[in-house]
Write a structure and sequence with these properties.
- By secondary structure, this protein is of the alpha/beta class.
- It has a single domain, classed as NagB/RpiA/CoA transferase-like (Rossmann fold), CATH 3.40.50.10420.
- The protein is built from 5 helices and 11 strands.
- The strands form 3 sheets. It has a 7-stranded mixed beta sheet with strand order 3-2-1-6-9-10-11. The chain has a two-stranded antiparallel sheet with strand order 4-5.
- The longest helix has 16 residues.
- It starts with a helix and ends in a 6-residue tail after the last strand.
């Protein structure tokens, strides 16, 4: 299947989940994420801010902030097709931005992604090799190349798994995928 077909199939599967199922499954993903030693020791967490049918990150962000971790979330720049991560001290200052996703204000402090210890990445589809398909615009893949030693952790529901996800040299595989059922670890190369 092509990336487009994989994306469409995974999004169809995800859209079958009710809002209550998304909430309950997101809680399970959060529990699995919080069990990671790398999350416990991370000083700087980079994370997406979830759309309504994605693995929800609100509680993860609040817990990270409450435990004294620095939290950075992305602002999208459509003209350049890039993400820039900005530090937040609470979720109160987030406002709808590009694609209707909550973003920090433009005057919030920019923090290079390479300063983070762990990066939480939204997955549309994923496979057992650590490959992912996003929404198709490449925003995360372009920015993940600057992550340095930060651990890339994809968050997804089990219903989004595919037998195989097509990948290209510009795609960045995940180091870890956390779902509502499991934690999967991969080598840095994604093999």
């Amino acid at each position: 299947m092509s990336k487009r077909e994989v994306r469409e199939e995974a999004l169809r599967a995800r859209r079958t989940l009710t809002s209550d199922e998304v909430r309950v499954l997101s809680e399970k993903v959060r529990e699995n994420l919080l069990s990671l030693p790398e999350f416990k020791t991370a000083k700087v967490i980079a994370s997406y801010v979830a759309k309504k049918d994605e693995v929800q990150t609100t509680d993860i962000l609040k817990l990270a902030l409450a435990s004294g971790k620095r939290v950075i979330v992305p602002r999208s720049d459509v003209s350049s097709g890039t993400l820039r991560f900005h530090e937040i001290s609470s979720l109160d200052g987030l406002r709808p931005g590009t694609f209707g996703i909550l973003e920090p204000s433009a005057d919030s402090q920019y923090v290079p992604l390479g300063d983070s210890d762990i990066v939480l990445v939204p997955l549309v589809a994923w496979d057992f090799r650590g490959h992912r398909v996003g929404y198709g615009k490449g925003y995360f893949d372009r920015e993940l190349k600057s992550r340095g030693e930060a651990l890339c952790v994809g968050l997804a529901f089990e219903v989004q798994v595919q037998d195989s996800v097509p990948s290209t040299p510009t795609d960045v595989p995940m180091d870890v995928i956390v779902t509502d059922r499991r934690v999967l670890r991969f080598s840095r190369s994604g093999a």
